Structures are given as C-alpha cells and as structure tokens.
Amino acid sequence: MKVDFAPLHTPFHRRLQTAAVLQWVYSFLALAPTCIVLFFYLLFTRFWLISVLYSIWWFFDYDTPARGGRRVPYLCGLKVWEYMRDYFPIKLVKTTDLDPRHNYVLGFHPHGVLVAGAFTNFCTYATGLRQLFPGLTTYLLMLPLWFRAPFFRDYIMCAGLIPSDKESASYPLHRNKGGHAVAIAVGGAPEALDAHPGTFNVLLAKKKGFIKMAMEHGAHLVPVFSFGENEVFDQVDNSRGTWLRWTQEHLQSIMGISLPLFHARGIFQYSFGLMPYRKPIHTIVGRPIRVEKNEKPTAEQLDGLHQLYMDELSNLFEEHKGNYGVDKDTHLNFV
C-alpha cells in the first residue's frame, strides 16, 4: 500500500490543529485506561500517597458526577478547542432562540463514532455556544462507566460531562429557574456501529427514555442534527446480520460500550490511522418542542410526544440537508 505522507511545508497552525485533535482522540480512546493503570502503579512506588489521598478524596466526592459535575469554564475556553474546531471545521448553527427561563433536553443525532460535534459544541466554548444561546448551561451525557476511572472522572467533569443514568441526567432539570440543557446522543453506543459515511441511520424508533424524562420535568425538547458526523471516519463493513455485527452487538450488551472498527488518517500521513478526516461538521439546533410537566405520563401521551419529536427531527433534516450536500432523495432512516 502506498503511503501518502503530509507535506513538510504544512503550515504551523494546521500542525497545531492536528495536535489538538490528537490529544482529544487519545483522551477518548486511551486516557481512562491510562489513568487506571497509573492509579494502581503509584501504589507500588514511593508516590503511593498520591493514590491513597486520591482515594480519600474520591470517597467524599463520589456523588459529584450525579449532582451536575464540576465544570471549569476556564478549561472549556482554552485555545486548544479552537484548534480542534478548525481542524474539521465544526460549526454550531442556531435556528431559533432558546429562552433561558426554561430547561431543555437536546437530542443529538447521529452519534457518529466519537461524537466530535457534540463534544466540541456542548462541552467547549469554541463554536460560540455562550454567544448563540446566552444564559444556557449545557451538560453532555456520557456512559457512567467512565466516571469510575480515577483521575479521568475529574478530567471529564471539567468539561460539563455527567453520567447518562436517570438520576444524574435529571439533576440539572430539577432546577426551576431554568437555563439548563441536557444534551443526549440518543442513539448511544449502539448507533456508533451504524456510523458509516453517506448513511443517515438514526436509532430512535424505540428510544423513549429521554422523552419521558423531559415530560417528568417539563423540559422542552430540542432536536439537534449534526451533518458530517458520520463522514469523519471510515468503518469496516459490519452490516446487520454479519458475524462482525453480531459479535459487536453482543460485546456491547456485555460491556456497555460499542467497539466500531473505524479508521481514517494518521498524524503525519493520510493513508491510515485513527485520526479523523478533515471534513466539516455542521450541528443544527432545531426549534424547541414545548413540553408540559407530567410526572406520570400515560403510554399514549409518551408515544404521541415521541412521534412529534421524530417528525420535528425529520423536518429539521429535510429543511437543511440541501445546504450540506445531502441528495434531495435521501431521508432519515429511523431504526
């Protein structure tokens, strides 16, 4: 295989963009295991006290992820995230105002392989979140598993990430003053297995938990579609019914995380590697669906709001797809 190396005269700012994305990919794929190994390694060195003191801290701080986490605005505004934004580039597109007197549940679609759009738009300030939606604080949901990794849990909480269990996801929505938005990659880990370029499969047909949560708290629902999310990585063919897909789905049911076999480009060459392609991502925030508080919705009420949400998401896709190179005959496929 011929390797297509990056030119030596690549501008320095593009090198910085690559470095920014490299640290993000490493954080997503390997930082948690690294932190776990470091924690136990330190116990057998002269620095053992670090792990012991951290364990004490962890004991008293254990419930913090379920209580809104611990966002550090300074870290969310670092220059490194602007370099990451410009690597693809990623853009947050507003279609209407979101009144900060209300709380919201943002349904993010599609998940993609590494949810690059959701992280950059809702965990950093690089794409202008605070200017586009003043008074709104966003929380991105992540698998609870990752909040059990020492050191790593503190790092991800700095960006406004909180666990995706019901208790943690509901906590920001309890605040009656409004101005809080929980962002959920609704399709979750299983949808990552469908993240192939040129596909628009949305795992939503049976996903009603986030709808029920919105109803219980009276939080308005906002459909969000991220054009280009599936384009930044290639994935080994794993069509439904193949042995690979069967294996991936069974491992996902056991471990809670999916294992898409993805690839794209490298750091210094464009032929292979785990770095995403430089392809644009446009995240469109749709119009809010007004939701009245109903702590015990009936099945019919839940189904009705769920169908309305799917219709609004489909309308959002149809309204904007022409702006981002999607063929007019292509439609969302609800799975």
Automatic annotation (TrEMBL):
Its EC number is 2.3.1.-. It comes from the Eukaryota. GO terms for biological process: diacylglycerol biosynthetic process; triglyceride biosynthetic process. The keyword Lyase does not apply. One of its GO terms (molecular function) is 2-acylglycerol O-acyltransferase activity. It holds the Pfam family DAGAT. The keyword Transport does not apply. It is found in: Endoplasmic reticulum membrane. It is an enzyme of class 2 (transferase). Keywords: Acyltransferase, Endoplasmic reticulum, Lipid biosynthesis, Lipid metabolism, Membrane, Transferase, Transmembrane, Transmembrane helix. CDD domains: LPLAT_MGAT-like (cd07987). It is a multi-pass membrane protein. GO terms for cellular component: endoplasmic reticulum membrane. The chain crosses the membrane at residues 21-41. Belongs to the diacylglycerol acyltransferase family. This is Acyltransferase. The lineage of its organism: Eukaryota, Metazoa, Chordata, Craniata, Vertebrata.
